[in-house]
Design brief:
The chain is of the alpha+beta class. Helix content is 18%, strand content 39%. It has one domain.
Length: 193
C-alpha cells in the first residue's frame, strides 16, 4: 500500500513540474489584442463586482504557471500565467532566460540577453486569470508550461464594496513593475499545442 501511495505521489509531482519543449521558431506572432467594449459588462461573484474595461484576446506560450490559494486575490484569480508572444514564444529564446513567479509577480533573468531587454518586457506579461466557468478552471489546472494557448475574455477591474478592496488591470503591454499585470476575466481558453 505504501508503495502504491508513493507511486501516485511521484506521478503527481512529475505532472505538476512537467514542461513541454516546443520546436524552435516563433509560435505566437501577434501581440495581445484589445478591443473597445460595445456595451458595459459587470459580473458579481461571491460579493465581488467585476467590471469589464476592454475585450481582450491573445495566442501565447505559457512561460510559467503559479497557483495561489491564500491571498485575497485568489478568491477571484486562483492562477497567474506568465505568457509570451513574438520572440518570447520561441523555445530557442526561452531556453536562455530563467523564468519564475511568486507573490503575484513574474520574474526573469538572463546572463546573456538573447534579444533586447525592452523587447522581452514588451513580449511577455504576468496575467491574473479569473476563470468565468468551472470548465475554464479545469483547463487552467491542466495547463502545462510550454503549451501554446488561445484565450479570450476581458481586461477587468474588481472591487469588494464592503471593505473597498480593488484590483485593476493594466491596459498596456509596455509597462513594468507594480500595476503592470493584466487582470483577465477568461471566457474561452483553448490549448493549441
Amino acid at each position: 500500500m505504501k508503495r502504491i501511495i508513493s507511486i501516485i505521489f511521484l506521478s503527481f509531482l512529475i505532472s505538476c513540474t512537467s514542461e513541454i519543449k516546443q520546436p524552435s521558431g516563433v509560435l505566437a506572432e501577434a501581440p495581445p489584442k484589445q478591443t473597445a467594449l460595445l456595451q458595459s459588462q459587470v459580473w458579481e461573484r461571491d460579493g465581488y463586482f467585476i467590471n469589464a474595461i476592454t475585450q481582450f484576446e491573445l495566442k501565447a506560450k505559457v512561460l510559467s504557471k503559479e497557483r495561489y490559494r491564500f491571498d485575497r486575490e485568489s478568491d477571484l484569480a486562483p492562477y497567474d500565467l506568465a505568457l509570451g508572444w513574438g520572440k518570447m514564444s520561441d523555445q530557442t529564446i526561452i531556453d536562455k532566460i530563467d523564468i519564475s513567479q511568486r507573490g503575484r509577480w513574474f520574474y526573469w533573468q538572463t546572463g546573456n540577453y538573447p534579444m533586447p531587454r525592452k523587447e522581452i518586457e514588451r513580449s511577455a506579461s504576468n496575467m491574473h486569470i479569473i476563470p468565468a466557468t468551472d470548465k475554464i478552471m479545469d483547463e487552467l489546472d491542466d495547463l502545462i508550461v510550454g503549451e501554446i494557448i488561445y484565450l479570450k475574455g476581458y481586461l477587468v477591474s474588481a472591487m469588494h464594496p464592503k471593505d473597498g478592496w480593488h484590483w485593476k488591470s493594466s491596459l498596456s503591454r509596455t509597462d513594468t513593475g507594480g500595476g503592470a499585470c493584466e487582470v483577465v476575466y477568461v471566457e474561452k481558453l483553448l490549448r493549441i499545442k
